[in-house]
Amino acid sequence: MGHGGNVIDELTADHREVERMFGRIQAMSGGGQELRDLVDEVTIELVRHSVAEEQYLYPAVREHVEGGARLADKEIEEHDRVEKLLKELEKTRADDPEMTSLLRRLMDEVAAHLQDEENNLFPMLRQACTPEQLNDLGDKIRRAKAMAPTRPHPSTPSTPTASKLLAPGAGLVDRARDFVTGRGKS
């Protein structure tokens, strides 16, 4: 969950972790509980990552990067699409034929988002911010991920203020549900 380093190093490490999980999903033959557990792990990682980005990364992009408001809005729209897919996956049984197409859509959407961030957004942020600002953002991202929800909540607002107010409570409830059900323990 927390890798260390500045915001770009932290988020890039998250990206690699998600790609590894996607690789494990693609290597699976069949579904069952193993697939359900891995989909849950991917969901937990993506939700925490997205919440942290919406709370701290995108406000920094708006503030420091030229044209940042447009970029941040585009990234948040992508998060919204991913969160809706995650919600659908959460409701889909691992042996349901729809699971495969939902996973393919999720992997395609996330891969495009990660590539865009790494090739465009991160270089612009690195150029616009001081190393101290990037390190501070990395610390904030790690703290946000620790408190973030672990389940998709597509109906909650994506604004930084709303997320900072609602995410800790939703995160607490999600983590309690995860503890009771054993979700995310594989």
Shape: elongated
What's the β-strand tally?
Answer: 0
For the termini, the CA-CA separation is: 15 Å
The Rg value, from CA coordinates, equals: 16 Å
Notes on the structure:
With 186 residues, the chain is mainly α. It contains 6 helices and no strands. Helix 1 (7-27) packs antiparallel against helix 2 (32-64) and helix 3 (68-91) packs antiparallel against helix 4 (98-128). The protein is elongated. The model has no long low-confidence stretch (mean pLDDT 86).
Topology of helices and strands:
Layout: H1 7-27, H2 32-64, H3 68-91, H4 98-128, H5 131-147, H6 160-181
In summary, what is this structure?
The protein has 186 residues and is an all-alpha fold.
Identify the notable features of this structure and list them briefly.
186 residues, mainly alpha, 6 helices, 80% helix
